[in-house]
Amino acid sequence: xxxxxxxxxxSALIDMYAKCKVLDDSLQFFNEMPEKNWVSWxxxxxxxxxxxxLLIGLKLFKEMQKEGLGISQSTxxxxxxxxxxxxxLKLGSQLHAHALKSDLKSDVIVGTATLDMYSKCDSILxxxxxxxxxxxxxxxxxxxxxxGYARNNHGIEPLHLFKLxxxxxxxxxxxxxxGAFSACSTIKRHLEGSQLHGIAIKSSYLISNICVANALVxxxxxxxxxxxxxxxxxxxxxxxxxxxxSIIAAHEQNDSNEETLSLFxxxxxxxxxPDEFTYGSVLKACxxxxxxxxxxxxxxxxxxxxxxxxxxxxxVLIDTYCKCGMMEEAEKLHNRIEEQTTxxxxSIISGFSLQKQSEASQKFFSxxxxxxxxxxxxxxxxxLDTCADMANIGLGRQIHAQIIKRELTSDVYITSTLVDMYSKCxxxxxxxxxxxxxxKRDFVTWNSLLCGYAHHGLAEEALKVFEKMQRENxxxxxxxxxxxxxxxxxxxxxxxxxxxxxxxLKDYGLDPQVEHYSCMVDIxxxxxxxxxxxxxxxxxxxxxxxxxxRTLLSVCKIIGNVEVAEIAAKSILELDNEDSSTxxxxxxxxxxxxxxxxxxxxxxxxxYNRLKKEPGCxxxxxxxxxxxxxxxxxxxxxxxxxxxxxxVLLGEMKSVGYAPHGGFLLIDIETEQSTEFEI
Length: 679
Hints:
The chain is mainly α. The chain contains 38 helices and four strands.
């Protein structure tokens, strides 16, 4: 059997062992060969690449160079594939230079392999330069660049390339179509996606390709065309785990949470094994529905499946538990993740922020920094939200400094959050300054500034921002108009408020929501037209909630309209019979109208129903410590000093003529005097 060591059959054996996934035997045989040529070296290097032993393949290439042997197309293709797999851009660039010095610099196969390497190393500009410099293009070179652009979220370029490919006469295959569908998914181009679907149908052999069908389902799902996604899925002759993952993800992305869970159950019944992507979509659906029991069942399945809690799946589980309000479970799970990344820390930090536990969120941020992990844009944005929630301007400024230091101010999401944080901390000058210096602004950035001005009663400034927003052709949304209407209410611009309210649907196709009707009730009611405000509520195409009726009740107190106030109060109590503030407000309206019997009745009703007004709450930060206070609270260690100082302040206020505002105090009918109703 000595003939097997002949270089030709020997090289074939090396290739055979490698393709049969027995790389050790392939390497052993290669090392025992007494004579090797460029074919033998090429076969073993290709075998290492095929078996994901990329570093070994590159080391063998280095040894091959020492032997002084020539390099073939296939050898270059293998080493460039290894560089792509290792994301070794620097080495790949060096090997590109090596190829340019060879006789194969104009070879389409070598050029395509190099192009593919640049694309997979996220150096898409270098890939495009190389593509443009190539004398000849193959279908594979087009595919490499199309998929590279799609992978790097350059949505429009892959579609342009696909058009060029169609004109080139080279045809297209499942890789071309899948890349183009992926591009449509990225930029949510439903029309172009549908056109590509038509092209795939005309190529009958391609529409039956499972990879193309999977890409179609994914594209329709991300373009919010769930019905089309379902039709493609239902028409599939064969489905794999990717097919099920795509349709499950499509339902989750379109907030069809019940159907997401139902599809998951169907997948299990068919004996398909879920992977981390399946579990990720299903857990997000659980979070959307706050389906805690289902979430815990999935958690158990994940443990039994031995997939393990990697950063991705662990982060999704933490996020789900947080959204279900199970913060203790989320924290335990976070501590059990072996390899904690920025993503897993973001999940627990944003989870506490979502539950309005801003102090806990900030503590986890501090621990994250102590662990040596670098926060990303999402981390900083979440922390700025917590600073806004607590009006913690000190920490907010520190985070702003870190953002500037790390050159993240060009991120429009960060900019919008900074504008919002400064406005909620009451510093509109700095909020406006951040807005002015922004590299890029979207509608969220404009809304943040507009909302800030409206919230602080700076109505004229808010309306000026809106007018400037219109001049710059930034399309307003529901949030924009809500701030504009609040600004109009603040300074009593009835006609202007009505104009903007009508403009929502007329000019922008935005159906007014309950919040907008509430603002209009406030605007119209404050002008004295309480009956007209009531008529607006009755004519609403939406069902009025407590907020709308409470707005009307507040207006009635200002205007002194008892009749409409009773209608509003009755409507509120029908929706929420334990709303103590309604009783308090109505009692004061009766008191202002000298209707003392009804005031007494309100008080007796509250006592009978054991209703108590929610105590007021405030907090202040002193030397990095947050101090919280409730009405009548004596839990603070220095409460004696605090009340003593408060007594001094009240005395000084009375001495200069200030009197307490009794608008929200229940009247004691027996004394006919305003007294604090302790609740």
